[in-house]
Amino acid sequence: MKVIGLLVFVTFALLQPLTAQTAASCAPAGNIQFVCGQEAPEDLLHLPGSDWVIASSMAGNGGIRLISVGAKTSTLLYPSSSAKEQLDRKTYDTCPGAPDPGDKAKFTTHGLAMRAVRNSIYTLYAVHHGKRESIEVFQVDARSKAPALTWIGCAIAPDPIGLNSVVPLPGGGFIATNFLERGANATASRTKMMAGQNNGELWEWHTGKGWGKVPGSEASGANGVEVSKDGKWLYVAAWGSQSFLRLSRGQTPVKRDTVPLGFRVDNIRFAPDGSILAAGQGQRTTNVVRVDPKTLKITELINQPNTESFASGTVAIPIGNDFWVGSFRGDRIAIFPASQ
Prior knowledge:
Elements: H1 3-14, E1 33-36, E2 44-46, E3 52-55, E4 64-68, E5 74-78, E6 84-85, H2 101-105, E7 108-118, E8 121-129, E9 134-141, E10 148-156, E11 163-168, E12 174-178, H3 186-194, E13 202-206, E14 210-213, E15 222-227, E16 233-238, E17 243-248, E18 256-260, E19 264-270, E20 276-281, E21 285-291, E22 298-305, E23 313-319, E24 322-327, E25 332-337
Parallel strand pairs: 6-10
Antiparallel strand pairs: 1-25, 2-3, 3-4, 4-5, 7-8, 8-9, 9-10, 11-12, 12-13, 13-14, 15-16, 16-17, 17-18, 19-20, 20-21, 21-22, 23-24, 24-25
């Protein structure tokens, strides 16, 4: 089975049975609004201080989408005729070049992350499943009316790593999660994950050094990942064990704390107040909690039953007085009021 076929199969087949989501009306359902025209928007990013959200796409032809917060309309950023390609050979020294036409035709994207560079210029990192299992890197220029995208590099994951999420590190490089092995050991890896046993870990990448395992980062279905501003602490969503992990970075021995959340934790995102929003899938529900990274106190924010309109939440980002929630399935993003 191809890499993306395996990863999508695992995500779809291993969750509890869900009500089939259809291309239903995009009208609000109670107090929940929608942004339609997506293809499994698994991860979301909000460009700071702007009217724009960037979404990944795990289904259909894939791609990276740009969404207007105000108009709730969506356009394809990559691949597109407006996107440029200019390899940064110095930084991405092992990247063989831009995705080939076959990969672009079905550019399946998963986890997203962003680093501010200067004056509304950002570096965008996207987990990509295709002919190569990789982190694809772009420059986002948000100075004009609509942000523009330029592909600038990649880091191809070693076999048999199956990537899920990525986060840039202070000072350069990034860390990505190995959610599920690809290849011959995929079935055994999946069995471990579903039993809550460690089946993967975190991997760190730097220019000139390539990939290396992060010590003490073993986890069951390592999914979303975040890092403290000083780079000394890592926060990890363990999908298989339904838990949230806090790991020290650069310390020996590694300090590690685990908090059970009771749902399959997917992506995690820092909120403006310094807390972490963790989203995932419960027993036929979309769940979002707030985690205090210092005390590890948990506050429930969303516990929403799956419906035909929306199911299987994967990420939550705060925009104004709302939470925008993505999903690994379906054609829409859900917008929940922060106060329910």
